[in-house]
Write a structure and sequence with these properties.
567 residues, mainly alpha, 5-stranded antiparallel beta sheet, 28 helices, 5 strands
Length: 567
């Protein structure tokens, strides 16, 4: 997780402010972070980084980075932080450091002094002493030993040894229980897999790029196989896959493999399982493929697509190559071979044709999508919006109204009604259209078990026709939310009607507990008091609220809320 805030000019430390922490985290996470100040431990500060552990549900590793000028970034390995959020643990660390702000320059200087002291000490050691130190560290750190073994194999050009080590690094065995790597162990596995990426990059850097190409491809395949048995909720394997793709690209650029062989591999990779992790774009290899390789890639893509015209990977590869070559007709042919019944594909084609400067064909495809969708209740609403917009732009206002009318007739939703109203107002025919639309809803609402009653109420409310909305709610039914809206809207002129609604809605809340129910009840009580005030019957309200207090005096939070509002 990384989040960033840019401050003004000044020292990097200027980015660590309470204002920046609140802006990055949001009010809710910032307030929750205040409760974790005592959970921060092991704060370490160097020149630009602040690290610590914060104990929440588990122990989380937290790091703040002070960017220059005045910026702030943060990472945390809690679930919320791994989703890309600036979490409460980062807030807690930031506030902890701010509380010691006066000592911050001294701590950063001490960290620099320690680093310089260590560097000076290491520089003064003899070769024998350095070797003894490294050997001692290797003996006690298995991961360090493995990393150095891998670097040694890369330096020797021992491809067989590196391949064996890469396979070992990508093996889930040491982390799996019953053949599956749980979330708690997935990060450790991803960290280990990352060492394979480093080995492949080092192989390229040491002049053995051809071997790096082979190893990168094998590593991508192994990673894809492993991913089937790893809980990668935080996306760690996706990052390893992207890093392997970058390492492969760099190795190919250095090794310059045969263009046709590269094209064949790219096509197979994109059509296989591994591409979901690596996200390789074949066009990134265009300069390495050249004309011969691109021709081979297109040939492979066409062959695969012809064998499976509805396959996602086959379609994506064909579309990518068609767009890159500016071949709109080829792109449309691919999309037209697998038209979605909702009309969505027709919309995609229409937009492509518009970009290509072919508006007439674009309009025809959009209209075809409406015709072929059949059921306008299931049509992609974006297609309806697109076509209505094009009709309006062309001055075909009545065509836009006709399409909106048909769409409303199929969906009978408040949104479709409002869209019909907008189109009909533009065409100056709303009164007739409104009468027809309301008649349709009223007829449907009278059917037993019909859901159209509340829809009718909503559309009448949107028309500001309160009397008709009240009648519809009474005759065909309405949700409590709608009754509350109606009561709020008619209260100034019809307080007696509104009072009846408020009293009915308040009754079940008096039997509930919990602050949410209490807040709703108090809100209704305030409205009930206002109704009695308008009706000139304040004594009736006093009697009502006194009886309510007596019956529920043990609900202390309710009593407190009522006191706060003078009830």
């Amino acid at each position: 997780m990384t989040s960033k805030s840019g401050g003004g000019a000044g020292r990097a430390a200027d980015g660590l402010t309470e204002e920046n922490l609140r802006a990055l985290a949001g009010t809710r996470s910032f307030e929750r972070g205040l409760g974790y100040l005592d959970a921060v431990s092991g704060v370490e500060i160097d020149d630009a980084r602040i690290t610590a552990a914060v104990h929440g549900t588990e122990r989380y590793e937290v790091e703040l980075v002070l960017d220059d000028p005045g910026g702030l970034t943060g990472t945390c390995d809690c679930p919320y932080g791994l989703e890309g959020n600036f979490c409460k643990h980062l807030v807690a660390l930031g506030l902890t450091v701010l509380a010691r702000r006066e000592s911050l320059p001294r701590q950063r200087k001490a960290a620099r002094d320690r680093a310089q002291t260590l560097d000076a000490w290491l520089s003064g050691l003899s070769r024998e002493d350095l070797l003894a130190l490294v050997r001692d560290q290797i003996a006690g750190d298995r991961q360090l030993r493995r990393r150095l073994e891998l670097r040694a194999a890369s330096a020797r050009g021992d491809l067989a040894g590196i391949r064996a080590r890469v396979r070992e690094l990508l093996d889930i065995g040491p982390f799996a229980q019953y053949g599956y790597v749980e979330y708690a162990d997935a990060r450790a596995y991803a960290d280990q897999a990352g060492q394979a990426v480093a080995a492949i990059r080092e192989l390229t850097g040491s002049g053995r790029a051809a071997g790096a190409v082979v190893l990168a491809r094998e590593a991508m395949r192994l990673l894809a196989e492993a991913a089937e048995s790893v809980d990668d909720s935080d996306g760690g394997l996706g990052q390893i896959g992207a890093d392997l793709a970058d390492a492969h690209h760099a190795a190919c650029r250095a090794a310059r493999p045969d263009p046709e062989e590269l094209a064949h591999w790219l096509a197979d990779h994109m059509l296989g399982e591994a591409d979901g992790l690596t996200g390789i774009d074949p066009l990134d290899y265009r300069d390495m493929l050249g004309e011969r390789g691109m021709a081979a890639l297109r040939e492979h893509a066409v062959e695969a697509w012809q064998g499976n015209r509805t396959g996602w990977a086959e379609k994506y590869l064909m579309e990518r190559l068609a767009k890159a070559g500016g071949d709109v007709d080829a792109l449309i042919a691919v999309q037209a071979a697998d038209l979605a019944p909702s009309g969505h594909t027709h919309l995609v084609i229409a937009r492509e044709l518009e970009v290509a400067g072919r508006p007439g064909e674009a309009l025809s495809w959009a209209e075809r999508g409406i015709r072929e969708a059949g059921d306008l209740a299931a049509v992609d609403t974006a297609l309806v919006d697109h076509l209505c917009d094009r009709y309006a732009t062309a001055g075909r206002l009545l065509d836009a109204v006709a399409l909106r009318r048909d769409h409303f007739g199929a969906r009978r939703s408040p949104l479709a009604y409002r869209q019909l109203r907008t189109a009909a107002l533009a065409a100056d025919c709303w009164p007739a259209e409104r009468e027809e639309a309301l008649a349709l809803l009223r007829t449907a609402a009278r059917r037993p078990g019909s859901p159209e009653g509340p829809v009718l109420v909503d559309v009448l409310l949107s028309d500001e026709d309160l009397d008709a909305a009240w009648r519809a709610a009474t005759e065909t039914g309405a949700h409590d939310r709608q009754w509350l809206t109606l009561a709020d809207r008619v209260r100034p002129d019809r307080p007696a009607d509104a009072l009846g609604v408020y009293l009915r809605l308040a009754e079940p809340l008096t039997e509930q507990t919990g602050n949410a129910a209490y807040e709703q009840l108090v809100s209704l009580l305030l409205n009930i008091r206002d109704c009695h005030h308008r009706l000139g019957t304040p004594d009736e309200f006093t009697t009502y609220v006194t009886a309510l207090r007596t019956a529920h005096r043990r609900k202390r939070n309710l009593m407190r809320l009522m006191d706060e509002h003078g009830l």
